[in-house]
Amino acid sequence: MAQIATIVPIMLTVGANRIVPGVAIPHPVGNPEAGLEEDKKTRRKLVLRALKALQTEISEQTIFDSD
Amino acid sequence: MRLELHKVKVRDVRWGDVTKLEDGVLYVDKASAIKEVADEVFAKVDLKLARPGESIRIIPVKDCIEPRVKLSGGRDYFPGFVSPMQRAGSGATLVLDGAAVVTCGSIVAFQEGFIDMSGEGARYTPFSETNNVVLVVEPIEGLDKHKYEAALRIAGLKLATYLAKACMDSKADEVATFEKGTVAEESAKFPDLPKILYVCMSIAQGLLHDTYVYGTDVKSSFPFLLHPNEVLDGAVVSGNCVSACDKNTTYHHVNNPVVCDLYARHGKDVNFLGVVISPESTVLAGKERSASMSAALGVELGADGVVITEEGYGNPDTDLCLTAKYFEQAGIKTVVISDEASGTDGKSQSLADATPEMNAFVSTGNVNEMIVVPPMKEVIGDAGAIALLSGGSAESLREDGSMYVELQSIIGSTVEIGYGRIGCEWV
Amino acid sequence: MSYRVVCYINQFYGGKGGEEAADFKPALVKNPVGPGLELQKFFGDEAVIVGTIICGDGYYAEHIEKARAECLKMIQDLKPDMFVAGPAFNAGRYGVACGDICATVAESLGIPSVTGMFPENPGVELYRAQIFIVKTEGSARGMKEALSSMARLGLKLLKGTPLGPAREEGYIHRGIRKNFFKEKRGSLRAIDMLLQKIAGKTFETEYEMPVFKKIPPAPPIKDLKHATIALVTSGGIVPRGNPDRLRVSSSESYAKYDISGLDDLTPDKFESIHGGYDRMWANLNPDVVVPLDVMRELERGGEFGKLHPYLYTTTGTGTSVANAERFGREIGRELKEAGVDGVILTST
Out of C219, C224, C284, whose CB is closest to A51? Predict the structure, then answer.
């Protein structure tokens, strides 16, 4: 499982192992305030990051915040 | 700065031909008051009265406001909203002590709450002890929620100011004085007293999750310093129901107990530096920024200790942890006041986040604890709204009118500025 | 009419011997024995000890199911209103035996069960959530005080007297938070606590920071191109109208919805009912909470094998840890049985 959410400290404390930092609380997988195109681009980037996290071997909680 | 609160005791509220205060009774001219707050976005506007001990339930409630008006040092009240921008906190203010305006009307969002004027539920809110003038509105069809919330918020502030203004000539039963110089002046006067800062974390997260200072919401604001008199004199307005239980109502802000209690000890065993409003952001970078900059303010002011109060539960728990951590790392001793979300069984972890530096914690109760409130003879607003409120569900309202709900649906029940005596223990 | 109490003690306190008698089989004496004599004095005439079970610590530990059943039968036959075991102080096997038999009696007979242990006794972590364990000293030096506390607590439980906090009632807390009204308001308590802290004096926090458990990470997906991925959310995204009436907070349930025919979550068909965040963005475009549009594109592009036909959804805010853990386990099991290889969980 890979979790996309904004408040990384909470994900760490509850024990999520594959963590992808989200954009904002009301829209973790998107940036609608920046317009439809940017929004979709951001969403795609985060989902791809999550998919990459699912394929990555880890031994402890890991934050995936780059591509 | 020197502020005098001229408190006029209100022990009853009744309808009258003219809005005025006489022998402790607040008379309200309904037509005149409604005219004061009418707005084209309201399809219906009504006022109701709810007194302590009456069998009345008010639901859903958005905010509670203490009726006040400047006697000197400014005009009207709530600078930035009702009065134009003016620095709050000096001169004299008339307070209708024992009265409150309560805003009610169809629901904006899920975290609004209720007030019971008697019975079990009354024990948990300060507004079962105030004489309430309830503003009940219905928005016009299709009104944008943000516009509705803003209009009702302003209407509540206007009504509170109008009521106080109509009683401006009343003689005060009590005058409370708040006098304190600048940080530099007071530190020179009391070099040996511990310097205490108060960080008032305030929700800044969107529709019905906002806080306003001098008329603007603090979503994009950095943490900033206010003289305590400003907080006690209407600079801060609530635009949120961040859950009914732990929202700081506008009434709570002008009566902030941390401010009042630190002020009472200022010059005796503390040097009260002032109040930092720290916005609780929806993004992690914002939380880091608020926490870091609040701590930086503490360092610049030479604080020895800080009281940090949270607003809300869940994601703001991270703001609380970060703020406590940064202050402690800067060598400033920290105590936090927060409520807990330990589940209806009381067995869940109380906070969504934790940090070892947060070792001095005052709890204002478990928001999920279930209570039963008896049926009320009269419901102002919409009894069925409990089904939609956080802490309630479709099954909460029973046939006889009693409700089985979480404490969090009662306005002010676990307010984290420590207004009440509620606490939480291990059993 | 006084309450009937049954006691449980080990071979040593029962006068049968020390470690050499640890295999003593459960025996019933229809009278108070050993510590029971003093316990009876603390009960006065409000409660009567009608029987004492004596059992060897070794016997209980090595034949736990048998010992439990044998003891329970003897206890049951005496028709007690309350059960008292120990106190075990810091003796490990004795503590576990007391804890086990108390928990069994509490569950099977539905009567108050009280024991006493030193906080470090292994029996405490195992049983504290199920029974009342009075806090005792580390050895029998604290016998009198332990018995006095056990009697006092026991009588309160029997009479249904509302209890105060665990620390006031003298027992080791059961991990439950409960609201109480205090003498001073929160702001005063905070300032007092802060001044103590600044002065370097001891202070008592009202809530200790928890230590969180770690979960071993799952192995990575080796072949994403042929993997089935599922979407799960705690952001409260549901079909318009919330057909399964998911709660806006403090969830008691989750739901699953068929998204197999959809390329996108649109506001005419879906909405957010989560009470803890501004739902404006989610209600304009639910994809910003559950990224179905992008997942479908990536699926078509062959980035991964298949998108699981069901979306699982619940509301995170205020939901108890116990419920959240249950949802996780159940959803996890269902997904595993359905052959799902990985999950993307989105939260607000």
Answer: C224
